[in-house]
Amino acid sequence: MAALDRNSNLALMAAAIGVLAGAAGIAAWTLAARRAPADGHPAPDLDRAGPRPTAEDRAPEHFRPDPTAPVAAEDREALRPATGPSPSLVTDRGAMRSQP
Questions:
Q1: CA 42 centroid distance within chain
Q2: Helix (H, G, I), strand (E, B) or coil at 70
């Protein structure tokens, strides 16, 4: 009889240990998230307290792209607009499959 009681409580004890382990994991994750350092570096151009950029605040000349530069053939192919039928979730009523 004692073995039967011990086995019936085994599932309950395993569930309690699982709940406690889950709660400890959530608590550790929450504390780690609070103490995490800020990633990256400050972005002064996005700072709300500073002055807003204007049209005169452009990149230096050597960082700007040249709009009159020739485009290579492989780049031209990559920039070509996609053509063909638009994707759809339903097929056209008169359409037939051309490939098996």
A1: 21
A2: coil
CA 50, 53, 56, 57 torsion-angle sign: positive
Per-residue 3-state assignment (H helix, E strand, C coil) for the chain: CHHHHHHHHHHHHHHHHHHHHHHHHHHHHHHHHHHCCCCCCCCHHHCCCCCCCCCCCCCCHHHCCCCCCCCCHHHHHHHCCCCCCCCCCCCCCCCCCCCC
Show Cβ contacts of residue 53 under 8 Å, excluding neighbours closer than 6 positions.
45
State pLDDT tens for residues 63-99. 888 889 998 888 888 888 888 777 677 666 655 665 5
